[in-house]
Amino acid sequence: HVQLVESGGDSVQAGGTLRLSCVASGHTDSIDSLITMGWLRQAPGKEREGVATWHAGTTRYADSVKGRFTISRDAEKKTLSLQMDGLEPEDTAVYYCAATRRPGRSLVEANYDYWGQGTQVTVS
Questions:
Q1: DSSP 3-state of 63
Q2: CA 26, 60, 96, 18: dihedral to nearest 10 degrees?
Q3: What is the Cα 119 distance to its own chain's centre?
Q4: How far is CA 56 from the centre of its chain?
Q5: CA angle, 54 as apex, 52 and 55 as ends, to 5°?
Q6: For the CA atoms of 85, 48, 66, 8, what is the dihedral angle to 10 degrees?
Q7: Which of the residues 25, 51, 96, 99 could staple to 39 if both were Cys, CB 3.0 to 4.6 A apart?
Q8: How many Å apart are CA 9 and CA 94, to the nearest integer?
Q9: Which residues of the chain register pLDDT less than 70?
Q10: So what's the pLDDT on residue 76?
Q11: CA dist list (Å): 115 to 28, 34, 86, 88
């Protein structure tokens, strides 16, 4: 069984910076098998959308965040981070950490099997 717990959400002004973290807990073999992890977000009244994904050291970003957000995963593979610079009001959303044992760099919600509870990011 794997659990994902996000932290780091906050309220900031436009142009500000936040760093989100997602810690995976569970059996080491289970965590190591999560070869694809990502951040997705859901704004009020909108569908959940992919923001950034990590797989085997490679990354992929939604066009809306390219050049502003950076996804990374630590060497122990237990923490997934999202560095968010140049935040815009349009970035306001609940941000979710997600993971799957399937390979790929999908930004599609349906391709992820494990989810955190979400952390709120508000940009004004």
A1: coil
A2: 110
A3: 10
A4: 15
A5: 145
A6: 20
A7: 51
A8: 8
A9: none
A10: 80
A11: 17, 12, 26, 25
pLDDT at 39: 98
How many Å apart are CA 84 and CA 122, to the nearest integer? 12
Count CA atoms closer than 13 A to 7's CA, side-chain side. Answer: 4
Cα separation of 93 and 100, whole Å?
A: 22
Classify 100 in phi/psi space as left (phi over 0), alpha (psi -120 to 50) or beta: beta
Amino acid occupying residue 95: Y
Burial of 87 (0-12, 13-18, 19+ CB in 10 A): buried
Q: Which amino acid is at 13?
A: Q
Cβ neighbours around 32 below 10 Å, total: 13
Q: Note whether 73 and 54 are within 8 A (CB).
A: yes
How high is the pLDDT of residue 104? Answer: 86
Structure-token match 């952390």, residue found? 119
CB 60 within 8 A of CB 107: yes
According to the model, what pLDDT value does residue 31 have? 84
d(CA 88, CA 67): 13
Neighbours of 104 (CB within 10 A): 15
